[in-house]
DNA sequence: GGCAGCGATACCGCTGGGGTATCGGCGCAG
DNA sequence: CTGCGCCGATACCCCAGCGGTATCGCTGCC
C-alpha cells in the first residue's frame, strides 16, 4: 500500500464526498475514483458504500481510516525528523511542545535545569492548542511534550510524572463566592449567572450548553472579568491571572498531573537528558 | 514520501550494499540507486555515505532508518487489520500472541474467563519467539499480547499488569544443589559444570560465553536433563517441566511480571473485553 | 419530466519507474 | 605497477500507470 493511496482514501473517508476530497487533494475527481477502486481491488475488500447520493464507510473502511491516519502520521514523522536531523547536523536541537498558558513556572525551571547539564543542546519551545501535543509528537513536529492528566491522552507515549496539583475556581473580583475559603464541584453547577465556558472540539463543533464560546485563555479571562463566566484551572495558573480575578480552591475536583512525554521509539540523547533533568526537579 | 521509497531505503540501510538490497527487493540495482538519489534530493539531505567499497549511514540516514521502520510497520498494520476486518466481517475475531511456553495456566484462565462474557468473540492464539510480541502488535499481526517484564519491552504499548512471580533455578535431577531449599544469583555463577545457555539475538548472532546455544524450550530442557546446562525460569513454568528436572527457588532474582498489552490506537471492543476479563482474574 | 448532483467510465498524453548495457573508481593479488 | 574484480553511477529505452478532459448513468427532487 502506497502512502499516496492512503492519503487519497483518508481524504475521501473524511469528506465522504469524492468531489470535495479531490479538491482538497488538488487532483480531479475521476483519478480519485479510480485510485480508490484500485485500492479496494488490491485489498480485496469494499471500503466504501456508494449510494448515488454520497458515500459511507464500511466496517473495513473505518478500520483503514483509523489505522491509515496513524500510518500517515508515522510517515510524516519519519520525513520531518529526518529533515531536522539533516538540517541540524553537527549542532542538534530538540523541540518541546506544550499547551499555551500551562505549567509556565515548571517549564522555566525545567529549561534552566536542563541548560545546566554538560551536554545540553538547544531547546525549541513550541506552543499549541489544547490536546494537540500528542499529535505533534506522533507526526514528528515535536520530540518531547508537557502534558496534563486527565485532560490530555497519553496512549502510545512514554511518560514520566512531574508534579500534581489541585484546581481552583476563577471568579470575577467582587463575586459573592470570593469570600469563601473553599468550594465544591456541586457549588459551581449552580453558580448564579456564571456558566463554565465551552471550548471548540477538534472538528470545530461545540457542545450544547449555556456557556460562552472561548478560543483562548485571554478570551476566557476577559469573560470572567466581565462577570460572564467562571472557570476551573490548576492552582499554578494563579500566577498568570489578572488582578481583577479571584481564585477559590476547589476541594473535590480531580487533581491535575503534569507529565513529560516522548514518542516511544525515541532514542535521542537530548530527549533522555530533558527527561532526566525533569525528574530531578 | 512514498512507502516504496521507504522500503527501498530501509533495505539499503540494512544491507549497506545496493546489489544485495536490490536482490532482496526483487529489482535491478540501477533503479534502486536512482530511487535513493531521488529520495535524497527530495529530502534535501545526504542519507548515505558512498565509498567505492560500500555504503555507510549518515546521521540523518540512521534517523530515517529508525523512523522509517516504525512507519512501515504502521502501514503494514493498516493493511493487515483492514484485510482482517473485511474477512471477518459479521463475526469478528481477535488475535492474541504470546511467547511459546510462558504463562500457560494464566492464558487458559484468561481465555475461559473471557469466553464466559456475553459479547465474547473468537480468540485466535498465536505463539511467537521471545521478544517478538511487540513487533506483532505494531505491524498488525496481533491485536493483544501477553508480555513478561523485564524481558519484553513495552514502549509504545498500553499495558495492564496481571501477575508477578519469583524465579527458580532448573537443575537436572540428582545435582548436588537440588537438596538446597533456596539459592542466590551468586550461587549460580559458579554452578559446577552447568553454564546458563545462550539464546540467539534478533540478528541471529550470539553472545560469547561457555553456555550451549539453544533455540527453543525443548532443546533447553533436554540439555538440562543431560546435565549440560541450568536455567532460570519463572515459577509458573514448573508446571510444564519434565519429571527428570528439579527446581530450587532463587531468592534474589528479579521477579517476573506478566502483562497484557495492546496497541495504543486500538479501539476494538474485543480487546477491551479481553483486558477487562484479564484484570478481573 | 426535466434538472441537478454525484460517482463511474472512456480515452489520451506523458511522467517516471524498471530494465539492460556500460562506465568510473578503488582495493587487491601477482 | 598493472590487471582484475567489485561496487555504485550513468546512459538509454520501454511501457505501466497516473492525471487530465469529456461524458455517461443513476437517483432524488422540484
From TrEMBL, chains A, B:
Keywords: DNA-binding, Transcription, Transcription regulation. It holds the Pfam family LysR_substrate. PROSITE patterns: HTH_LYSR. The keyword Magnesium does not apply. InterPro entries: LysR_HTH_N, LysR_subst-bd, WH-like_DNA-bd_sf, WH_DNA-bd_sf. GO terms for molecular function: DNA binding; DNA-binding transcription factor activity. One of its GO terms (cellular component) is protein-DNA complex. Residues 1-58 form the HTH lysR-type domain. PANTHER family: HCA OPERON TRANSCRIPTIONAL ACTIVATOR HCAR (PTHR30346:SF0), TRANSCRIPTIONAL DUAL REGULATOR HCAR-RELATED (PTHR30346). Belongs to the LysR transcriptional regulatory family. This is Transcriptional regulator, LysR family. It comes from Actinacidiphila yanglinensis.
